[in-house]
Amino acid sequence: MRYISTRGGVEPISFQDAVLMGLADDGGLLIPESLPDVADRLPRWRDMDYCELAFEVMRLFATDLPEDDLRGLVDMTYGPAYGGPVAPTREVGPFYVVELWHGPTLAFKDVALQFLGNLFEYTLARRGGELNILGATSGDTGSAAICGCRGRDGIRIFILHPEGGVSPIQKRQMTTVLDENVHNIAIEGSFDDCQSIVKSLASDLDFKARYSLGAVNSINWARVMAQVTYFFSALFDVQKMSGAAQAQVCVPTGNFGDILAGWYAMKMGAPISRLLLATNENDILARFFDTGEYSRGEVRQTLAPAMDIQVASNFERYLYYRVGEDPERLKALMDQFQLTGAFQLELGDAEAVDPDLVADTGRRQDCLDTIRQFYVRHDYLLDPHTAVGVSVAKRHQLDHAPTLCLATAHPAKFPDAVRQAVGEDVAHHPEIDALMQRPTRCETLPGDEGAVRRYIEHAVEDGL
């Protein structure tokens, strides 16, 4: 399998080259040249454990890795060291819920980023050199990326987060990691400002090469690839529990990465009847699927801060397919968006409407009501991001197919939202409770590319 850029300016490259490149050198996103059809493999895959299934999925995309090495990386990631079951599915009220928060930082990002940390170290050990990872986070990506890369040889990690724009616990999960190779940077601005700085620096090819920049955000293809597995795994669980042939899948999303993995799984043959895309009040994606207009608004702070995003970086991958895999047209649309903050695909045009995907918005009261209802009726706590998704799922149930909802974080990461919803301090986890006693380290910088550039230069050149 080779990888190409959505903008057409990169010659096909191998999987490991794509992983190290991160953002494509032409400013686009790397995608596989083709998608495998696995429909005839599903009966064999259905009874595999998670490690076996992850190996079968990833071997289709990581074809330049010796299979024994890939199997070793998968077992190292998802075996006992992971800390818990990877993606268990439970029946909760009218829905099936796949819990993706059993990893070391209690968020779905661990599924991909624990693997990516192992993959980075494996590749660098064989190729030599070092990697300076630059990423932006609206909450959970940062702590999961740091956990996956802390203390690793040949790797430094620089994580930008919006000052005041992540939950206090999310910030502590990042800033209490004091390993020398970890650099936490609070940016005076929004997540979109952080993401813009990351993309701008990664697009400066001289700077990228000189300082060996890599990426852990879902702009890195390996992130999306690793998430594809749990869609297959959870859908097999639903089939066994319900007897249904297919399920619709509801995904709360801000950056379009998680639902993109589900969309790829669907195109590969996963038994998905349709996808439900759930946004919070930062509804740029929901508006696109309703109107064909993709337009940036002001970022609104909500109870689900990891979704407080107005520029969804992974949307470019999806849009590439929606415009007929035409990189010139894709680039023109993204250039227009960069210049004006908007573009429009006409309704009625097959490119602007996707029958496989329905989008809707879960607002603040929807979120609170859903947390309270599921706690009272089902004795089950949802975090606010998952609750946004479940609130949308409640409005879009199907008679002919069950609904699978992705639970993206442990509720203990968002105790204030849970307390507002249920009136009790019930969201706890021992790892989270212990965070408040630990020392922290973080640098605050203005929302300016130059300030971040100088910080990285200083850290690398001084060996920090």
Describe the structure.
The protein starts with a strand and ends with a helix. The strands form four sheets. It has a six-stranded mixed beta sheet with strand order 3-4-14-9-10-13, sandwiched between helices. The chain is of the alpha/beta class and 464 residues long. The chain is built from 19 helices and 15 strands. It has a domain at 89-106 and 222-430: Rossmann fold, CATH 3.40.50. The model has no long low-confidence stretch (mean pLDDT 94).
- Which structural class do you get from the secondary structure elements? alpha/beta
Q: What characteristic shape results from the CA principal axes? A: globular
Q: Low-confidence spans: pLDDT under 50, at least 5 residues? A: none
Major sheet details: 6 strands, mixed
Under CATH, the topology of the domain at 89-106 and 222-430 can be stated as: Rossmann fold
The strand line-up of the biggest sheet is 3-4-14-9-10-13
Helix content range: 40-55%
